[in-house]
Amino acid sequence: MIKVENLVKNFNGFCALDHVNMHVPKGSIYGLVGPNGAGKSTIIRHITGIYRPDMGTVLVDGAPVYENVAAKSRIAYIPDELYYFFQSSTLEMKQFYAGMYPDFDNALFEKLQEFFPSINVKQSIRRLSKGMQKQAAFWLALCCNPALLVLDEPVDGLDPVMRRQLWSLILSRV
After folding, report:
1. Which site from 3, 98, 100, 148 is most exposed, i.e. has the minimal number of CB atoms within 10 Å?
2. b/e map 101-129, b = 16+ CB within 10 Å
3. Model pTM?
4. Distance (Å, rounded) from C-alpha 79 to C-alpha 70?
5. pLDDT mean across residues, the chain
6. Would you say 152 and 40 are in contact if contact means Cβ atoms under 8 Å apart?
């Protein structure tokens, strides 16, 4: 599913990734562990096609992801720092995601609303708490029906009960 070979990335003379190799088979749950500054988020941003490799290759399902709309449409990514159109509501973001992801499942969105009862879908996302913003991110990402779900600091801001519920929901879909 994910194949990273000899990946190199430099930022203004700082070598963030130095010939990194990583292979993650389809159907796997894979965790990146390391200290701050080890390059975890940088690898993730390559896998999701945000960064262009300085050297090496990054393939998802056999295809390069950088500047590849078809490959990116099969990946849902929840970054460590969420970015949404903060003036938008969860319902408006649902419409945006549905336009970007061909496999977006509107029926699943309605079904999962029961799982996230504290989120008012018409309320601006910026007015939600950090934990509720993270819940909205999971809700939207799961409805994309991604072949690959990439999470960076996935449970930051979530209470222990919601963490368990989300892991249970994700694992039931694997």
Report:
1. 100
2. beebeeeebeebeeebeebebeeebeebe
3. 0.89
4. 20
5. 93
6. yes
